[in-house]
Design brief:
The protein has a domain of 86 residues. 31% of the residues lie in helices and 13% in strands. The chain contains three helices and four strands, in the order βαβαβαβ. Strands 1-2-3-4 form a four-stranded parallel beta sheet, covered by helices on one side. Strand 3, helix 3 and strand 4 form a beta-alpha-beta unit.
Length: 125
């Protein structure tokens, strides 16, 4: 807050398990950073298809759902006691001319709507 600019970390699916993602989100919440932009991320260099980590989120929608659960105090480890609800404002990517991997604009808008229904608060184009 030194410069009065909100920090908006980009949270990606690629390269992280769901547990690692949860730990990073807990750290962000501890630092009072609660605005995040959720994107799937790119495929690994030299590949054309995105492959998630074992036990990682495959789609941005999955990641939105995970963060929404944390906002409700629902963690991956259901046996945790005295959990706290988080307060993340979730942004997602939107593609006015459709995502390059989407078969058509209707499909792209369908999944954008699902991300909003799952808990996203704003869209970045």
């Amino acid at each position: 807050y030194r410069f009065g600019i909100d920090v908006v970390p980009h949270i990606i699916c690629g390269g992280f398990t769901r547990e690692e993602t949860e730990n990073a989100l807990i750290d962000l919440q501890f630092l009072d950073i609660n605005n995040v932009l959720v994107v799937r991320g790119d495929p690994q260099p030299g590949t054309r298809i995105f492959v998630p980590e074992p036990d990682g989120n495959e789609h941005a929608l999955d990641l939105v759902k995970q963060i929404t659960n944390l906002n409700k105090g629902i963690y991956l480890d259901a046996d945790l006691l005295n959990t706290r609800s988080m307060n993340f404002c979730i942004g997602v990517a939107g593609y006015p001319e459709k995502h390059g991997e989407s078969p058509n604009l209707d499909s792209d808008l369908y999944f954008l709507k699902k991300k909003i229904q799952a808990g996203a608060s704003y869209i970045v184009t």
